[in-house]
Amino acid sequence: MGFKDGFLWGGATSANQSEGAYNADGRGLANVDLSPTGDVRESVLMGKTKMFDFDENNYYPAKEAIDMYHHFKGDISLFAEMGFKVYRLSIAWSRIFPKGDETEPNEAGLQFYEDLFKECQKYNIEPLVTITHFDVPMHLVKEYGSWRNRKMVLFYERLCTVIFNRYKGLVKYWITFNEINMVLEAPFLAAGLFIEEHEDAEAVKFTASHHELVASALATKIAHEVDPENMVGCMLAANAPYPRTCHPQDIWKAKQVENQSYFFIDVQVRGEYPAYTLKDLERKNVVLPFEKGDQELLKQHTVDFIGFSYYSSSVVSADPTQTDTIGGNLFPSLPNPYLKASDWGWQIDPLGLRITMNNIYDRYQKPLFIVENGLGAADIADEKGYVEDDYRIAYLSEHIQAMRDAVDYDGVELLGYTVWGPIDIVSASTGEMKKRYGFIYVDRDDHGQGTLKRSKKKSFEWYKKVIESNGQNLDF
What we know:
The protein is α/β, with parallel strands linked by helices. It has a single domain (8-468), classed as Glycosidases (TIM Barrel, Alpha-Beta Barrel), CATH 3.20.20.80. Helices cover 38% and strands 12% of the residues. It has helices at residues 15-18, 41-45, 68-82, 93-96, 107-122, 138-144, 151-166, 187-191, 201-226, 248-270, 275-283, 294-300, 350-364, 390-408, 458-468, and strands at 8-12, 86-90, 126-132, 173-177, 231-237, 241-243, 305-309, 314-316, 368-372, 414-420, 440-442, 454-456. The strands form three sheets. It has an eight-stranded parallel barrel, surrounded by four helices. The longest helix has 26 residues, at 201-226. The radius of gyration is 21 Å and the shape is globular. It starts with 7 loop residues before the first strand and ends in an 8-residue tail after the last helix. The model has no long low-confidence stretch (mean pLDDT 96).
């Protein structure tokens, strides 16, 4: 019993939260660069406050992040020391095509990722590459309106054609879009969409979603043509919505919330829109922008595996007076009296991971890959940068046990597990550095101050033992 031989243990980061070097070597500006810290951040992420350029009144943490652009060799060597079998990372679209609509790529950007992938291979670490982890070149946002415009499919196709050919033999595992369902929750963060006052927000978001789904199928087609060994996955932000009560209306509300996310995966795995989404859009007078060949493309080029992120479960209610939601997450949730919460209010629910794995696997019968799971906490480091993070070890241990139960007792097929993030990086939801996830501490604060020195936390050695034992030894 246990995880199969060759199980892919590792960690996950994104370009915009780790690389920094936002204007180095020809890189263009991206939507994810323009997410400031502070009270305005959420409004920007939601596409409600327009911020298409930097201003002097705000701090933008992604500009420098943890400068992994210049530290990746040392960081990957630390990942290798833990025994990583896989490292999930993303490509910054604007490093490859700075504006996004060029016909020729930026060689410096291509070379950077080639060097990074070769560094992974040096340690027998498989790169798992997210093609776009919320990245959209700002030129495409300003000039074309981002994913609301069909031309984005062409620009994405060009990006995919270039990287699949350039990195053939270096990268086998791919994800087309990070947390594709987040376009409905945070449209500017997820897809570079700013919703104008005169626009129908639902129509804009579902038009953009359709274009991304077509682009995902096209990427899957190209990947398999370039190299039949390529494995392409989709990715869902999974949230395990629980009904607040056993009232049938609450049960139905939870089902509706779940379906709003699952419809993306329905299309990417089954190759067609589910009836419930089509009927919902009909009621909203939203017409999907199907073009000739879309249906065949979606049907013929479905994904090989399903990636998903899981941090916590949520509670929903059909009662409109239930508005006492907890903060700290882009998914609204009512409090769950049976669960403890993290420093940022995320409700810790290891069994929810097992439930989520079963729900997704039962629904699709495709291999799963947990590509994000971790605990953001306000770590306090000593003078040497050491953190006694038993709380993180406890969180991860309980979730890995739940994951093991889903595999052992429920028969779920699982390819791998990448902890978010193995090194401290900028938080996507809050922009903070103090919300730390890593096994590796980075000397950097919320104001961009610090030496960027890397140091090992207690959890570093713990995760090393977990990998060595293939998930059997979770003691600490």
